[in-house]
Amino acid sequence: MIYEDDKVIVFNKPSGLAVQGGGGIDRSLDELLAAFARSNGKRPRLVHRLDRGTSGVVVTARTQPAAAFLSEEFAARRTEKVYLALVRGVLPPEDSGTLNTLLVKVEEGGRPRMIAAKSGRKGAQAATTHWRILARNGDAALVEARPETGRMHQIRAHLSIAGMPIVGDWLYGMGAESAPRLMLHARRLAIRHPDGDVMHFEAPVPKDFAALVSELGLQSGL
Question: Which are the catalytic amino acids?
Fold first, then answer.
């Protein structure tokens, strides 16, 4: 746990833990929230999601009014999200930029994924991700990603389309042999609290993430 008060609980979710349950998922953060239920039996509510393989900051709400408020903050894009991604591929010569490729959800092999879409395609969604290379070594880099929009798999899809897929991302170009898990970490989140003040939360970099960053000679970026 990162933070707790009477309206909000913020967690540092480990990679591999699903946020919500579903087919083939036997353990999720949503189920674990039962341990934080109040005396009336009402447990905290999810207000946003992280992919199962992504680690880092997850915000939950203790009350229905707080959940409605926080959900609207995410929907209205009034939050600031900062991720760290370990990538490999054909790195751009620039150290920063913005990806605006339209994305559309498709089903491949029974699994949903996002692909690049042309303007006018049915279901195409606008998506914007700002990126900055914090350290590079050969074909590997530590990238800071700041998504403006919140599309499914947005950072994963955008970085893959840009030619630098995330290490450990079997769905978007880097197979499981590249790392035992998806090397994407939700490092920081700034969001307005239901009481009015903007709060800043940060999740420390996981040990396995930091170890691979060091192994690839990118530790100067942390």
Answer: 51
